[in-house]
Write a structure and sequence with these properties.
This protein is of the alpha+beta class. The protein contains two helices and nine strands. The termini are far apart.
Length: about 160
């Protein structure tokens, strides 16, 4: 009887240990898979929605018909976007995987009652000289100082 009890106890301990070890491996594998899904969005060919400008959150107002955004096109190294009232475009240049500059910026000239955010965005695009993409967030800054503009990737279907 004692040997049956010891054998049952031993089987129970082995089963518990095996299941715990398997759960740990599964969790580690699932965590690794989740981490691998957290890939950086691509700087180019991504619709970047403006969420923060000069440290202040940016939200779409009822007057805005579209959200403020930019897209950097690989072909021709072109930037295109919407500033809240006017569409705009130009060119960009990158180097060293963190330097960026925008030039030849042009835009429509629609008169709108509120152009503060749009004008601030255009000034930022004239000023910034570096960027970084972490996950789905693009940050633009000058001389690696505080972020001047923060944008989030929007995946269009």
């Amino acid at each position: 009887m004692k040997s049956i009890f010891k054998f049952s106890l031993l089987c129970f301990v082995i089963t518990v240990y095996t299941n715990c070890n398997q759960t740990k491996k599964t969790s580690t594998t699932e965590n690794s898979m989740a981490e691998s899904k957290k890939t950086n969005a691509s700087l180019t060919e991504t619709y970047w929605k403006l969420t923060e400008l000069m440290g202040k959150p940016v939200a779409m107002t009822p007057a805005d018909k579209k959200e403020i955004h930019i897209t950097l096109r690989k072909e021709g190294k072109r930037i295109e976007g919407f500033g809240g009232c006017n569409g705009f475009g130009g060119t960009y240049e990158t180097k060293n995987n963190f330097n960026i500059s925008f030039s030849s910026m042009i835009g429509t000239m629609i008169a709108c009652p509120e152009l503060d955010t749009e004008n601030a965005l255009f000034n930022v695009l004239k000023t910034v000289d570096n960027y970084y993409v972490i996950g789905d967030t693009l940050s633009l800054s000058k001389a690696k100082m505080a972020t001047m503009a923060r944008l989030v990737a929007v995946y269009l279907k």
